[in-house]
Backbone:
């Protein structure tokens, strides 16, 4: 696991910007949204990053200083997702071989400070009652808190026709916090999806895992068991975002109170997925780079070079 060392430069300014904004930036989900989840072998497709607490979210331009890892992982290995700074889409990818591939994005730290009541709401929204209980025990519930956070995003891409018995969904990519599907969502066509949540490579128990879709009001959620496993019953096909958040005490010696990791997994199941492996489903993302404004949630000063 790569160390996530803190950089002091720019922290004070980032905190002031966050306080002035008056919005809990870390309360927003972050995900990968490619222009298609079912490209043909050799087809070039764009990769967008998005942030928000509701769909469609806001576009996140490519910021090299925030990136630790931005890659496409497939049967032939791992390759970087290239792109231009400050552009949306954040990258372009192409997979020559058929099969399941994983887009992966790992960021360094951003930082924010929230007033006590806002931080407590933030904890409640993300299922972090354990942290809230610790703050209460220490008499800190009303105190402001400084949090450093990083992104651990994945997207599952089916390249070409799905072959019976194909593997790849279960790859563990070594992210600090990682959602790993234990069944291929493209084989299920909706229904119960088993997942495992890993923190620093080990099962994380008691974490809230949620799945939501743009065309559905309800969320599907569950808590991980002692083995880090959870079963989410997806009510149907379509675009799905699965997410989880974990928070620990910030490293000693820094000037932050808490450190959080935000994991996400996206995939898109066709309406006719269960009818056979040749069905293609393309998710089109609307927007032009010229229309974009950097999101305050993702523009905080990084804590180390990307």
Residues:
């Amino acid at each position: 696991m790569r160390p996530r060392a803190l950089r002091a430069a720019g922290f004070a300014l980032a905190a002031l910007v966050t306080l002035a904004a008056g919005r809990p930036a870390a309360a927003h989900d972050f995900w990968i949204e490619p222009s298609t989840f079912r490209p043909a072998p050799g087809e070039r497709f764009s990769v967008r990053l998005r942030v928000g607490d509701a769909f469609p979210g806001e576009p996140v331009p490519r910021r090299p200083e925030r990136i630790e890892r931005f890659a496409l992982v497939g049967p032939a290995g791992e390759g970087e997702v290239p792109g231009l700074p400050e552009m949306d889409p954040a990258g372009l990818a192409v997979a020559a071989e058929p099969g399941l591939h994983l887009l992966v994005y790992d960021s360094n730290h951003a930082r924010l400070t929230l007033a006590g009541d806002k931080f407590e709401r933030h904890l409640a929204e993300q299922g972090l009652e354990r942290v809230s209980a610790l703050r209460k025990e220490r008499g800190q519930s009303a105190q402001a808190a400084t949090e450093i956070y990083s992104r651990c995003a994945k997207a599952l891409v089916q390249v070409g026709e799905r072959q019976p018995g194909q593997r790849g969904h279960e790859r563990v990519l070594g992210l600090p916090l990682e959602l790993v599907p234990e069944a291929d969502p493209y084989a299920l066509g909706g229904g119960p999806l088993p997942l495992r949540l890993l923190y620093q490579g080990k099962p994380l128990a008691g974490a809230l895992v949620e799945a939501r879709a743009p065309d559905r009001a309800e969320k599907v959620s569950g808590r991980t068991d002692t083995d880090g496993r959870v079963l989410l019953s997806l009510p149907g096909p379509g675009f799905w975002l699965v997410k989880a958040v974990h928070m620990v005490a910030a490293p000693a010696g820094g000037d932050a109170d808490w450190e959080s990791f935000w994991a996400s997994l996206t995939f898109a199941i066709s309406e006719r997925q269960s009818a056979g492996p040749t069905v293609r489903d393309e998710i089109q993302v609307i927007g032009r780079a010229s229309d974009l404004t950097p999101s305050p949630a993702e523009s905080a000063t990084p804590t180390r070079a990307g």
Summary: The longest helix spans residues 11-21. Confidence is low (pLDDT under 50) at residues 1-27, 273-306. The first strand starts at residue 29 and ends at 34.
